[in-house]
Amino acid sequence: MVHFSLDNLDKMERFYRANFINALTGFKSPVLTGTVNTQGIENLAIFNNIVHLGSNPALIGFVNRPREAAPHTLANIEATGVYTMNLVANSFFRQAHQTSAKYPEGVSEFEQTGLHSEKRGNCPAPFVAESPVKFALELKEVIPIRFNNTYFVIGAVTDIYLEPTLLLSDGCLDLPKAEIIASLGINSYHTVGEGTKLAYAKP
Ligand SMILES: Cc1cc2nc3c(=O)[nH]c(=O)nc-3n(C[C@H](O)[C@H](O)[C@H](O)COP(=O)(O)O)c2cc1C
Predict the structure, then answer these.
(1) Residue 48 in contact with ligand 1 by CB distance below 6 A
(2) What separation in angstroms does the CA of 113 have from each of 2, 99, 121, 127, 173?
(3) Residue 70's pLDDT band (cuts 50, 70, 90)
(4) Of 10, 37, 146, 193, which alpha carbon lies 20 to 30 A from 79's?
(5) How many CA atoms lie within 13 A of 1 on its CB side?
């Protein structure tokens, strides 16, 4: 096997290292995070460092890069306390990727990418109309990670919307049927095939 030491990592070109380290933790499920600022301007950005924290209450966390690198989603969530997450299907992954571009404050990625914003229920944050699985969250905690100036943002799921045919009898979601994609690192998108379901493991 090829071995990489800390010294090798240090010497890597910045973008090469970012690709390399981002791929180390394997495939992720990217979401489009929809927010709105206090002036009513919407923001949409792709995130894939998402983690399930618990089902009851339903809590989801994500990692936000340092504020200077990714300021808008975090600022809007802190200002309004609400946001949406929208799973990405094969039909719109290119537009989803484009939301990662550094648009200036006040420019809506919905307008820039052609993805459609929709309002649902009482949630002021926008959902992505094209997404077949989406949910709203209420901010619970922003934990600063001092070691590298990132943030762990924790939200409670308040409302879930999905295409009815995707919900299976055991509560699982048939995401391959909706052609929900996976991402690897920050520049590679992958279709997902049918899975194999196993029974709850017992000793
Ligand atoms: C596939 C992919 C996954 C990404 N995941 C994250 C992530 O988990 N956390 C993050 O802070 N930025 C992530 N980014 C970068 C953000 O999308 C980018 O910084 C975006 O401009 C943030 O926008 P904002 O300032 O509107 O919040 C990712 C980018 C791509 C292409």
Answers:
(1) yes
(2) 40, 7, 24, 14, 27
(3) very high
(4) 146
(5) 3
Sign of CA dihedral 45, 132, 128, 124: negative
Query: How many whole angstroms separate alpha carbon 170 and alpha carbon 199?
Result: 12
Q: Which homologous superfamily is 29-184 in? A: Electron Transport, Fmn-binding Protein; Chain A (2.30.110.10)
The single-letter code of the amino acid at 62 is F
The 10s digit of each residue's pLDDT in 101-130 is 999 998 999 999 999 999 999 999 999 999
Q: Distance from CA of residue 91 to its chain's centroid?
A: 17
Distance 151 CA to ligand 1 centre (A): 13
pLDDT at 82: 98
Q: How far is CA 23 from the centre of its chain?
A: 16
203 Cα: distance to centroid of ligand 1 (angstroms): 40
Report the atom number in ligand 1 closest to the C-alpha of 100. 17
Quote the tokens at residue 165. 């045919």
